[in-house]
Amino acid sequence: MRRDDVRFAMAARDDGMRKISRFTWRAGAVGVVCSALIAAAFGHSVAADHGQGNGGQQGQGTIIVPAEPPAPAQGAGQVTSGAS
């Protein structure tokens, strides 16, 4: 391979690497901005929900465990899907 061809190939490779690097940084920056916007949107909705007040209700958002397990369902019994 001639020396001029090697220099041209190296310059083309370096140019391509610069373009890819620039694109990668831009894509990363766009991702960070989008993440911040999503976090701000969800954070705003949570803050708005807490600011409304519950009218004195307590325990909202907690899990209530029943005293006894649910009764078995009436019907055909267990249904399986598949060919087994």
Write a structural description.
There is one protein chain. By secondary structure, this protein is mainly alpha-helical. The protein has a domain at 1-48. It contains 1 helix and no strands. The protein has one helix spanning 3-51. The longest helix has 49 residues, at 3-51.
What distinguishing features does this structure have?
single chain, 84 residues, 0% strand, mainly alpha, 1 helix
Summary?
With 84 residues, the protein is an all-alpha fold.
Topology:
Elements: H1 3-51
Radius of gyration over C-alpha positions, nearest whole angstrom: 30 Å
Structural class: mainly alpha
The ordered H/E elements are H
Helix content: 55-70%
Give a quick account of the main beta sheet: strands, pairing sense, barrel closure: none
Number of distinct beta strands: 0
Helix tally? 1
Sheet-strand content, in percent, reads: under 5%
Mean pLDDT: 79
Distance between the termini: 65 Å
Low-pLDDT parts are: none
Shape: elongated
